[in-house]
## 1
Amino acid sequence: YPSLDAHTDRTIYGDPVTDKIVFHFGSELSYPHKLTYNKAFIQYNWGYYAGGSNEQPGSNAEGPASKMITRDRWYMLAAPLKKMASGDFALGGYPITWQSLYNAPHPSTGALVEGDFSTPFSSNDIDLSTKNNALAVKVACYNSNIGYNDQRHLEGLQGILEIPYFENSTMADYHPGHVYNKIRKESRFYYFDEKTLQQLSSPIGTLSRGDEAYRFVFEDENTNKAPNIVVNGVTVPGYTHRVTSGTSNNKTVMIGNPFMATINSRLFFEANRTKLKEDAGYYMLTPTNQVWSRYEYKTENKVPALQAIVITLAEGLTSADLVYPLEGTYALTEVSNQTRSVTSLSDDSGNSLYIRATDSTNKTSDYAILKAEETTASSGISKMIYPSSHSVTEAFIVSSDQEYNLIDFYNEKRTEVGLGIKSSNQKDVLTLEFENVESFKSATGFSPVLIDKYLNIEQDLSSNNVYRFNQRKTESERQYSDVNRFSLRLSSATSGIIDEPNSEDLIRVTYLTSQLEVSSEQGLNQIDVYDLQGRHMHTSGKLAGAPISYSKYLPLNQGVYIVKVKTSLGNTVAKKINAK
């Protein structure tokens, strides 16, 4: 993972120069616009069988520690070179490969948002730069069917597709559906019958391409250098790409990382703040279980080289000129191949309630999030599902207007929040897990209780945050979703807690002239103040060092309030105070 930034020594050999540069799958080059080169090659690695017939290939031409793309799963790929074609990923049926575009039609009422790759390329000669430098590819695993049982072409390539290949005679036999005319500088693509794998003489697709096909997509075609772009009023080298969502209902777009380098997602958002919907985040389809995972625009969340993502355009936009600065405050590329794990919370999870569903094999989808902050500005972020991943258990929130959301917002008038479960697995025991319960409870003043209406069970999540159940029968027409069984009842955190007048020796609470004073010889852990409607008026948060006294200037409107005090020994007592 070399970097050509300012720290690269140029005093002895000058600027970095090479004739050819080959990017093996998983490799990166930060500050790529600093490199002078003649030709660039990139590789995609699916592994190979070498005579074996296991489900996934076990041989790796790059060594066992190198990355491989999962077979028989859709993988979102970026196309960072110019003049890459949809047909470059076809192998004449040995094995069959599928190349498609992202599709997310507007959902019907009472349905989850489906995001999939059901839009095939209309032909093999489509320039991928016209499709946001992105596509989805699926490569067949070995089995006994035609198109799967003979993988001679990918085996001959040892699982690695190197692009450009069209002038490489040693690779020509493995691309039988492609012929290159050196005089006309034109690629011709042929098709085959999927039932027999017989090559067809008609139709024929054509794409003109020459030396420009060895150049990075971000370069100016005349200078072979990164052009200057304006980012928030500052001129820097970079790349501008126009993307279009197509309709006002569907504002999601799949885009490919245009660099052979990791992109900092936070800086990408900041450079395009007015063009992207921040709270929607971005999505990637996890290849292993084919589940959409949402990522927030955070510094720790990276977009690796050769990776495509799905972004959401800002309200009111159906197209936008996205900018990718290579230098300056928002320089995107960095040396890192780390991405956030979708099975763990970020460090700044705040006060939101996190909900996830897991099956018996520990397959877990993304978190559904009930935000602790009240808002009327957002209608929530819709849950996006991949239609064929119904066996993976997923959770989502049913909003007050019956929308199915991945992220929704707490409202003090909303005493019950619906939960939906999507899974076709009716055999195994499934799990609902709730995280950050105490922080949510402290921030909102409401204690969440899970209601299973089917079994007539209530579970206080403050005492037990894990619930196990079997999915009841669901229908494929409703995407195997059950939206009527579970809900969260948001009970006042003061419910069941009464003033204890004889506990002065344990905890002392006074409130005079807007000054709250609390003391206890046991040491104090946390103090919370509520009104009689259960609304949260103040929290001390967790107190460090278990102090024996706490003082806070706290102006309150006239009325009676409850002060809930938790000591360092775990005792909890509620006291009434009267604000005059």
## 2
Amino acid sequence: MGLPATHTVLICVGLPGLAISTEQGQLTGQGLEGFYRAGRRLLSRCRLRVAGYEPVAVQARMAGADRARFVGTLRTSPHGGPDPDVVVERVRHADGTELITLSSSTSRPLRVPIEMALGTDLADLGAIASGTSGPELPASVHDSGLRWSGPTATSTVTTDPPPTDMLAATGLLRWEFELPPGGSRTLELRVRQEGEAPLRTVARSATSPLATAHASGDDPGIQQLLRTSIEDLQALLLRDPAHPMDTYLAAGAPWRCGLAPAEALAAARMTLPLGTRLAAGTLRTLARAQLRGPDGRSGMIPGARRDAGTRLPPSCTGTEATLLFPALLAEAHRWGLPEPDVEELLPAAERCLSWLLTNVGDGTYLCDPQPGGPVRCETQAHAHRAALLGADLLEACGRPGAAELREWAKRLREAFRADFWIDDRSGGRPAAARLPDGTPVPHLVGTAAHLLDTGLLGGGRLAPGLLDRVQTGQLARLLGAPAMDSGWGLRGLGVKETGYNPFGHRGGAVRVHETAVAVAGLASAGYEKEASSLLRGALAASAAFGHRLPEMYAGEQRTEGSAPLPHPAACRPAATAAAAGVLLVTTLAGIRPDTPAGKVALHPWPGMPLGEINLTGLRVAGAPFSVRVSRLGLAMVEEAADGLQLGV
């Protein structure tokens, strides 16, 4: 029947901890509700009763990426009129802590009995998703709370103050609170996996690799989007267990709370304006997973298959990750990655580039690794960018191989412009893929946005794209037309294409990552009108989702007074969506650094679609970087590293 719906729940994330709740605030044990650690549900049921009644839920909201606040009310006196006289506030944290505060507004002391019914199945998230989690386990008394034991895990719940009474058979804890007139009392609940210390997430430590940047300006939406995106990114940070100094991003919550190489690299690339430390940690982690050996897979970074919808077979995310690795290293080098890190990671990047040339062989295109696989449009875009940025990196570091990569990239451009372009009376379009017999797949897809993502070279230059100037202009018009621009962002498939489904995760839904790539690529190519429309749509969707963008949502057309329809199975937060929020905001300033040359150039949009914008707390060359862009597109650097030559 599919995954449990996530669009109506509040997900607190501070990996490896999660807390998932409905808007009622009570944990009932239904669906995904509960406290989790490392994918294991430690507590599934936590129902609170005050004076014999459940509080009436009046508000539920996220108070941060890792915590949610629930407010309920009670009327304890039958003669006090219709107004509630006790407010119950519950602040639930992803680290397994919940603070419950009772506040009285009466003019007399109150003696309030409190009951809390607890339970858990200690189920794995995968079992919960498939509906095979099993019944609740029996509890036993433990310290100032309860304990549950299963075959693979044991969880405990303790409270402060300790309960005055406990019934382990029913998982019931009881207290009696004395509330003075106008006073309050707080109860703390702590959920732990036995034998493990309390969580200390990367986001809360002083070693977070992401700078806490801020945005302000005429449009308040950019400030809120950037703040929430950075909070979500910090909440998704994980440490490599064997190398705890290296951090990377999990793909998303609740379904993908582990490392997905392609998504981690793509997200790290979009967050380079927040510093290069995340890129370094991600690259080091994946370099250790790189395949070695004499066969054609040597140098590849393993990755899972990704469903590509109904038109094409699943794609290989390992191919995408292998091509993203040298591109990320090359751009991180330009943003200020320290030279020792570059030297350390360069051999792994060289192996990725050797893998690319080996698998192209005597041909022109990089095919899918499975036998008889198609030649995908976006794969050629990733490969072309990897070759050009990789060649630039090799040359900058005095390593051989740049000429061969540039020569192949040139051959690819010439062939792609002829073989992948489908001419028609409207001006043509790029094919989504070519089948083994050379037949083009003519569908207009959102992944074509990667053709506009060319990459940053030395001197602040952009790499040439796979399309020529006329084809780029036609693609810009197609992406900006109503068939692809939903008003909320870029659809994954045009509405007129066979098989279009507004909820299809690769067949019509808006994917935030591709929307941000399209916005940045269109703006860099000079198509600000189309870029502005997609940008405004994404910001409107951000506001509708409380500025926490999911990885995707329905591609239904925006109309007056409407709101984007959530995808019930989308991760929220998701690494690429949160990183896309950073890219959407920072791309307005057009920052193009070349730290090895001691330069940074600004290419702001000529007509700023959102008015004035001020970005502070970014990082270039390892130092704070702040820039202001006026409504007319005039840029001014207000803070930068010493000795950095500035240009506009």
